[in-house]
Peptidase C14 caspase domain-containing protein (Rhizobium leguminosarum), 608 residues
Amino acid sequence: MKRRQFLSATAALSAFVLASHKALGQEGLTRGAIVIGVDMVGGLPKLTATDSAKAVATWLGSENFEVKLLADDAGKVTLQGVFDAVADFVNRGNMDMLVIYFAGHGFMSGDNEWWMLSGAPVNPNEAISLLESAVLAKDCGIPNVIFISDACRSSPDSLNAGRVRGGFIFPNNGPSTSIADIDKFMATRAGGSAFELPVADSVRQGYQGIFTACFLEAFQRPETDMVHTLPGVGVVVPNRALKNYLKREVSRRVQQQSITLRQLPDVEVTSNDDVYIGKAHVVTQQTSFDIKVVPLNSVVDLALENIGAKFNNDALSSSNLSANVSKTDVSNYSVTTGFDATKDLILSSVAPLSFESQTGFSIMGAVAAEAFALGGSKATITRGGSGNQSALVRIDLAPGSPGETVVIRFADGSGTVVAAIKGFVGNIVVSEVGVSNVSYIPSSNSSRWSEYASEGKRLNELHAVVASAASLGAFRIEGDRATRAIKGRKMGDDIRVLKSVDPTLGVYAAYAYWDADLIEDVRSVSQFMSGDLELRLFDVEMLAWKGRMAGKVVPFCPLLTQGWEFLRVLGLSSPQLDNLKSHLKPSLWTTLDTAGMDQLMVSAQNIP
């Protein structure tokens, strides 16, 4: 069946479902939905996204949602129009659930997905920032907010989207007394920019629309292990039950249509097990397919298990891993995704080093052409580093300084901004797209070395696993709120060394805690690190205190590329940072292109 025929049949079936479901009733829930479909974006191939949007709108209406359909076959879809529709639901103050669905052209910037509206990319404001909108959604007062994205994901350069900044669709009403649970269903996962296709290839392969078809099918013909009976409601398909089904079904369908699958769906559910969007129509027995779908979180859990980490996401358990997938399959997938190669590269770069100053950097994979430190500190490049090092950069901190911002430019003209931390050597790994990891290890001639020495092997392995997972967008704390709290404590045990918090792991953990709504854990990392290091790392402080910086903060910008997407929504943007953001390379750690480094070098004297 062709996609348009399938969606038309889906709409007809939804009308039937409407009649049968009204008898069960959902009077106890007040639920709204904004459904967006954009076929035409300036100068780009036309999509059939409105077909998907209309099918979803019909289905949600049958589930007693109040639906606002914004499709461009009825007029241009604007950021203001979407914002007004969302704000109307938010400001009522009585909503139990809000669903936001999008079908159209999209792209990634860091870990943020952008949805392009009718006026984009000519009007750089006419796009929706999913990450920033989700940040504001947490404080919207609605208990459950669900984002569903069937964006036809393309590389930003092919969309002429490099300067698209877009905006938010949730009102900035300030902190709420309770944090909303945010569930995300995305056609393709965040991270891994190498997977992005030029827009012409994305449209030609026809992947967009399959995700929506699979999503709707999950409610019309769910399998026995996907359903749950709620008293007074009936048989429903909980959000959490959709994860494995969507990954397997989408993979199966793209193979049937001979589409080159570049990415699997990304499902992140933080709500409780009984939270659902729709009821089950016809429950079927689980279908047996030869296809094997190995979740990325199982790759991460296997690596964590192998090094004896306490934290994991139970991804290797029989309830979360398909029956036809073994640990051998997980291990093989770890190789094909590049996870193992990234991990091995990071491990090979880590070596205990010392500088007479006890502070500096070792660089692998690039040659340092220039380096300078702010705040009266001094950076000196030492050519011909030993072993795998391309260069060493010694840092002489200003008297009494616990650390400072350091800018390092590589021989190809690109460069990075890092934090020099007193008594630590940062091992910098540079790949073809930029800095893939920075691991902070105590200088072997510092007072810190002895306390780290006994844990060195474990920490090096943990650095490599976490960085590799983060580069694939797979370092998360999953589960409902209570489960995430338990897992968060285990992660806390892993990132600590005696009474200290490992600087590298502290940064990664801060993002994982933030994403899991464990704000007190982010603040605990901040307090541990600031007390021990006598300085504050930008990323940790930004997330811990939502932009309210205090004390000595280094560097002057986020260490991780994903952190740049938080600057605006957390009130930390500035003209200088906004300009530099346009020059970020698609790397895990902040890396600026040649033009960005030129700009930074000129303005360095004005950086506090």
